[in-house]
Amino acid sequence: MIIKQRTNRGGRTPKAPINENIDATEVRLIDAEGNQVGVVAIEEALRMAEEATLDLVQVTDSDPIVCKIMDYGKKIFDEKKAKAAAKKKQKQTQVKELKFRPGTEEGDYQVKLRNLVRFLENGDRGKITIRFRGREMAHQELGMKLMGRIEADIEEIATVEMRPKMEGRQMTMIVAPRKKK
To answer: What sections of the sequence does the record tag as coiled-coil (predicted)?
Structure first.
């Protein structure tokens, strides 16, 4: 007879054994208040948990097994809540790209600068790209001048993470928002 072994593919963590599912004869018991009772027989620990109308939950798999008297449903709820709070705290930062040309006019420049400021205020990083076409490659100093102007315009809210550098036919610079105090 072939017995198929189950794998943990659902991403769920294996549940801690509770009450009668604890496979031990003696356990080190911690009561509901967190006080250590000592090493007791499993039957005694189950009786104490039942008297308190709570569950006996295996905490660690040591020798002897450590069990705690607690409300298992509340424990699961608190763990889920803590996991959700940790996930909510985590912020994914994105790199937003703005493309300029060496001859970008003033109106277009102001619109793109406003967008860059908005991205930085939202906590995202900005990648500024200046694309050179044809004979514009001979005038890379215009690109450097434009990068310097952008840097000067956003210096109060951002720091330059990567200085302007040429990559093929485009010049790139990466800026990150300043840390708020």
So the answer is: none
Q: Collect contacts of 133-138 with beta carbons under 8 A, ≥24 apart.
A: 133/101, 133/169, 136/101, 136/102, 136/103, 137/169
Q: How much is the pTM?
A: 0.51
Instruction: Determine what percent of the chain falls in helix, strand and coil, rounding each to the nearest 5.
Output: 35, 30, 35
Q: Which is it for the CA torsion 106, 111, 116, 118, positive or negative?
A: positive
Q: Does domain 19-80 match CATH 3.10.20.80?
A: yes
The ranges assigned to domains in the chain are 19-80, 95-177
Its CATH class, for the domain covering 95-177, is: alpha beta
The per-residue pLDDT for range 78-99, each reduced to its tens digit, is 889 999 888 887 777 788 899 9
Cβ atoms of 71 and 55 within 8 Å: the answer is yes
Cα(94)–Cα(72) distance, rounded to whole angstroms?
Answer: 39
